[in-house]
Amino acid sequence: MEKVSISHDKSSPIVVGLDIGTTKICAIVGRRSKDNTVEILGIGKAESAGVTRGVVSNIDKTVQGITQAIEIAASQSNVEIRVVNVGIAGQHIKSLQHRGLITRRDLNREINRKDIEKLIEDMYNLVMPPGEEIIHVLPQEFTVDNEPGIKDPIGMAGVRLEANFHIISGQVTAVKNIVKCVTKANLESHDLILEPLASSEAVLTDEEKEAGVVLVDVGGGTTDLAIFHEGIIRHTAVIPFGGNSVTEDIREGCSVMRNIAEMLKTRFGSALAEENKDNEIVCVPGLRGRESKEISVKNLAYVIQARMEEIIEHVYYEIKTSGYEKKMIGGIV
Fold first, then answer.
1. What is the tally of structural domains in the chain?
2. Are both 136 and 239 inside the same structural domain?
3. Residues 120, 102: contact at Cβ < 8 Å?
4. 180 and 132, same structural domain?
5. Could you report the per-residue pLDDT of 185-243, keeping only the tens digit for each?
6. Can you tell me the distance from the alpha carbon of 122 to that of 110, in angstroms, rounded to the nearest whole number?
7. Which of 80, 123, 201, 244 could be stapled to 137 by a disulfide with Cβ–Cβ 3.0 to 4.6 Å?
8. Could you give the CA distance from residue 261 to residue 250 in angstroms, rounded to a whole number?
9. DSSP-derived 3-state class of residue 39
10. What is the domain extent for residue 220?
């Protein structure tokens, strides 16, 4: 059977997503259908050994992981993968609010897409702190001739067009290293997408975004957060703690090897210590024939609970600082 080749053409029905995570690298191939849904054709996963807290720390190991994941996904889907949409996260990600405006000269012409693109383009030209670049500019709501709260001004008449924007920025070096890894794996990066935004597109409904909802994605190296209200992205954050932080706590707290700590977390771990019995014990083998070690399941849970409480406190802090704490009808997903 002949392999299908894909290009960066937006009309191409086949799209590829590449998630370069701290614990694993995942490639997914999907086909866009006419009713705007995506049929999954293939998934490839590989261990991620060159990424720390969402940021590339070893180019060669990351390239190796990308290549493995892409090969598996290409084999499953029978698609020759050349172009990918890459997710970006990491503790270097920042977000800010900004307001822009343009004064239109042609009064006989309705507001069109070009006017909005001009506003967005102006935001990309904002002066950022040294070493940072803008990744996304997301319009929130528009004001036309001092009439606020307009979600879509296209087709309206007006002279003064203003907009509130949610701007997401990241470190230039971190972004370049991701692109470099993708290029070294003989792929072309079509787009960089902030991972909490990509996750929200996958798991949140329009109704939830309208009601007000917090998306929390606890990954290996980071915890990603996105807040939506009235269908608009209001706040994003990347918290530099995740599942790997829990594993490290177990490794230090129980004095075991990292692979044993990961096994204890996944097989016997709990975030609520009170739900475990005092007499539950796990016996782990000693190193190279040394005496085995007994670990209390309740103590293990206390270690996990402490870190998970810290992560949730960070999440709550971000929700409070966003100003939307009392408006989240949809709660946390």
1. 3
2. no
3. no
4. no
5. 999 998 889 888 888 988 999 999 999 999 999 988 889 999 999 988 899 888 989 99
6. 20
7. 123
8. 6
9. strand
10. 205-333
